[in-house]
Every structure is written in C-alpha cells, then in structure tokens.
Amino acid sequence: MGARSLSSKGILIIQPLPGIGDMIWHLPILHAIAAASPEGAVTVLTKPRSQADRLLKADPSIQQVLWLERNPGRHDGLLGIGRLAKLLRQQYFRQVWILHGSPRYALACWLAGIPERIGYGRGLQRCFLNHPVKLPPDQTRGHPIALANRLLERSHIPPVEEEPQLVIDPIARQTVVDRYQGFPQPWIAFGIGSSEPYKQWGEANFIQLLEHLGQSLGSVFVVGGVGEQAMGQRISAQVRRWGVSTGEALALPLEETAALLAMCTVYVGNDTGVLNMAAAAGAPAWGLFGASPPLHHSRHIRCLVPPSGGTGMEAITPAYVAAELRNSGVLDGGSA
C-alpha cells in the first residue's frame, strides 16, 4: 500500500459510452468529481470514438485519457477483462467511479486492486463495489445523466456547473482566429453530420434554409466529418454562388471545431455530438429533432421539432426553421 500511495494517480472515472455527445453530457459529472478530489483532476477511461483526447485536451480537470478498446477490441471478452485489469493496475489509482451499470468494469477494477470502487450497484456489479454509497436497487436504471447525478447526490458531491461547459483549447482558438478573421459576421454554423440516416435533415433542406435566411447571412461554416465532405462542399458551393462567404470547416480537428463553434453567432444542425459541443461551447445551438427525443440538459440548445401534427425530419421545413431563427432575434447584430 505504501508503494501504491506514493505513485498513485488519484481518481479514475470510467465512462464507456462511445459518442462525443455522451462525453459532453458527462462533463458536469467529471468536473464535480475532479473539484472534490485532492488533485483537482481525474483520469478518464473511455472509448476512442468519443475523441476525448482532443475534446478535453485543454480541460484542467482532466489529468489523462485512457482508451477502452471494445466492440471490437483488446478489452472484449474474458481475456479482455484481464487486459483491462492489467492496464489499470499499472496506473495505481486509489479510487474509481464507474458511470455504467455493467459488472465487467467493476470486476476489472477489483482485479486491478483499486482500493475504492464506486458505482451504481446494478445487479452483479454490486458484488465488486466496496464504497458504502450505491444507488438503491430500484434506481439503477434510467438515463445515464440521471444515474450519475443521483450517485453524486448520494455521495454529497456538489455540482460545479449547471450544464456542460467545454474548455476551449487556446491554441485551437488562435488557429481559428487566424484562419477566419476576414470573414464577415454574423457567423452561422451548419452541422450536417449525422450518426444515423434517420436523423439527417438533408442537403436540399440546408440549402433551402440558407436561401430563406437571405440577408441574415454573414458567413456560413458547414461543419461535418470526413463522411460529409462531398455534401458539405456542394452546400458551400451553392452558398458562394449567392455571394455569401463560406469557410472550409469540414473534417477539422475536433478542438478546432469546438473553437470555431464558440465564436459562432448561431449553430443549426442535426441531433449529433457536434450539436452538444456547440451548446457546451456557449453558442446558441438549434437542434433538428424530427426523429429523436429533444434534449433539455442545456439552456443553449433550442429544440426544433415538427410543428403540430407532423412527424419525422421531413416535417421540419426550411421555412419553419428560418422563421424560428428570425423570431428569436439570434441573428440580429450577432458577432463572432
């Protein structure tokens, strides 16, 4: 135990949900646990799809990011539990928070010899936890954020923020300023990415929205990943034909995307992790929720749902979105 305490890396948080949005949702939880720790920082174990190394690179509450390699990966199956335990044993953590109900992560932490193991206590997971604070058996299921908040409350750890707050990397911010400083305001970002086809509003709708906005446009930044490059380039080409400035913002490093969103007057996009990033960066973020439940965890997210009687993404028309944006006043006198 003496060697462990001398080289201890403090607190580990296991957050195995894979998406960027999932990591954004958990930011208030990570920040609260870090603030309550002697080190003021935590290590996060998560999946590579979260891009947490880029997303959290400027966050002083995050000491390091470790990768959980699953589905497929080296941490799958029974042998994978052993490999994960070996990885964690080498880090000498004194405490772990498991923000998931699966027993496999609690078992790996038990095998790794982490002295203090905290989790929801769902089913078999309870056998491998040793902290007195657990959720009652009938309260171990529900939305991930509700469960995590419930665990913090029972641990008497106060929140440090009411909603997710993303720390912007200063180097990325300066890169964005240098690249786009000549673009007129207001800056409008369109998030065209979609993890599932049924959440995709579509190229034609984004183009028609730009046409409806007309004189409200200053500069348009089409934001998306590698898979949306062709679509994004077609949208940008149409915008340029109308004489509107458009900045190349496709497949940027995630920290630069976050910095750009923080400087935008408004963001409009599909229900994706980037929508959550925009809100966590402080931008008014209008999400298109025709095929998924609206989000209510951030005051910066404005939910655009089909008007009364409509269903699906096709029921959210460009004219309707343009009217909502104009009526909100968000485009009046915006600055980046």
From TrEMBL:
CDD domains assigned to the protein according to its UniProt record, in alphabetical order: GT9_LPS_heptosyltransferase
One biological process term in Gene Ontology: lipopolysaccharide core region biosynthetic process
Keywords: Glycosyltransferase, Transferase
GO MF terms, alphabetically ordered: ADP-heptose-lipopolysaccharide heptosyltransferase activity
Top-rank taxon: Bacteria
GO annotation, cellular component aspect: cytosol
PANTHER family: ADP-HEPTOSE--LPS HEPTOSYLTRANSFERASE 2 (PTHR30160:SF7), TETRAACYLDISACCHARIDE 4'-KINASE-RELATED (PTHR30160)
Record protein name field: Glycosyl transferase family 9
Organism this protein belongs to: Nitrosococcus halophilus (strain Nc4)
